[in-house]
Design brief:
Number of strands: 13
Distance between the termini: 14 Å
Strand order of the largest sheet: 3-2-1-4-5-6-7
Number of helices: 16
CATH architecture of the largest domain: 3-Layer(aba) Sandwich
CATH superfamily of the largest domain: Glycogen Phosphorylase B
Order of helices and strands: EHEHEHHEEHHEHEHEHEHEHEHEHEHHH
CATH class of the largest domain: Alpha Beta
């Protein structure tokens, strides 16, 4: 069969959908040499991607996400290939594509937390129209958590039998480091000469960074925590006032370290050096960072919200109310002050991550393809 995969978000960086597409294709082609695969890229990923399998072909789409070209040029390219099945790895599929398809819905964040970027009524209407169309027309839908499946059933009245929950995996590059030289190099680079709490990710409103900063202020002032809060991720001008502004208001400029977007090779040492990983997010489709931290042997303190307890498992992290900075601070302090609790979280976390595998994800996705093709 001839199967297309939307790789326009493909990325080897450890971020969201890009990582999902990277791991899906990398693992899928190791287990399936029978079907023919057509991968659709934008530049520069099209030129960078190396073909290593005889049953895989790449096609240049150059149709930006959420654009007119996505609805016109990309549609023409897809129709030209005459695919037996198309896998849209995100909801943004051309409205008038009529051939059989599978779609992955990672989350419904924009339903709950539209944020400051998609603010115009036209853009909002476009989002609802496109995701509704993709979900309705798909033969099968993949979600990355039971929580997202439930959201689809409630908000879009999608039949349960149409939705397949396939969990993501954790890349083997995340691991405890016995040689601490890489950790020393990273902590020296970012001037981390005291214990630090770590957050990794984007700065969107649902990530709840202002409340994390308030909790950190309580830790510093009421609980005498002598350390840093490290926040990675590209500084986002849309949310800079919320994050940088809050830091200044709370007079935390000397205690909150903004690293910017860290290099891929720095991420594992940064996890390894952390006292703990803090995940305050209000809403996630899956939420990889807590599992990455667990696989590095780092205790996790996380929000009791959306899919986070589902993914982390109830005994493998300490959970807080993400809307209550006082509760957040108290739960973080529990882990700081109780060595036995830290050790338990590390041990349980290392066991938990063994349940997640990108290879297993690819195998289950191939099963969905086969079901959709023969339905």
């Amino acid at each position: 069969m001839k199967i297309g995969i939307d790789c326009r978000m493909y990325s080897s960086d450890f971020t969201g959908i890009g990582r999902y597409v990277y791991e899906l294709t990398d693992n899928l082609f190791k287990i399936d040499q029978k079907n023919e695969y057509i991968l659709f890229f934008n530049e520069p990923e099209f030129s960078k991607y190396e073909l290593r399998h005889p049953n895989v072909k790449k096609v240049l789409a150059n149709a930006p996400h959420y654009s007119l070209k996505e609805q016109t040029k990309f549609l023409q390219i897809l129709n030209h290939e005459k695919l037996d099945l198309m896998h849209f790895t995100h909801f943004n599929a051309p409205l008038f594509y009529r051939r059989p398809s599978v779609v992955t819905i990672h989350d419904l964040t924009l339903h709950f937390y539209p944020g400051k970027k998609i603010t115009s009524p036209l853009h909002r209407a476009g989002y609802y129209r496109v995701i509704k169309s993709a979900v309705k027309k798909a033969k099968k839908i993949i979600t990355v958590s039971q929580n997202t499946k439930k959201d689809l059933q409630v908000l879009m009245k999608t039949p349960s039998q149409k939705i397949h929950v396939i969990y993501e995996g954790v890349n083997e590059k995340f691991k405890p480091l016995t040689d601490k030289s890489a950790v020393d190099e990273v902590t020296k680079k970012y001037k981390l000469d005291k214990p630090y709490l770590l957050y990794t990710g984007v700065w969107r409103s649902h990530k709840n960074l202002p409340n994390l900063l308030k909790a950190f202020h309580i830790l510093k002032n009421d609980m005498d925590f002598d350390g840093y809060l490290v926040i990675t991720g590209r500084k986002d001008p849309v949310y800079e006032a919320d994050v940088i502004g809050q830091t200044a208001t709370l007079q935390l400029e000397d205690d909150v370290i903004f690293t910017g977007l860290v290099k891929e090779r720095e991420l594992t040492p940064l996890y390894n050096g952390a006292l703990m990983y803090v995940f305050p997010s209000l809403y996630e489709g899956f939420g990889l960072p807590p599992l990455e931290a667990m696989q590095c042997g780092v205790p996790v303190v996380a929000a009791n919200a959306s899919c986070v307890p589902e993914v982390c498992g109830t005994d493998n992290a300490v959970f807080f109310d993400p809307l209550n900075p006082q509760d957040m601070a108290e739960k973080i302090f529990d882990v700081i002050s109780q060595k036995s609790l830290r050790e338990k979280l590390i041990e349980n976390g290392l066991k938990r991550v063994k349940q997640f595998s990108w290879k297993k994800m690819a195998e289950q996705t191939l099963e969905v393809y086969n079901e959709a093709l023969h339905q």
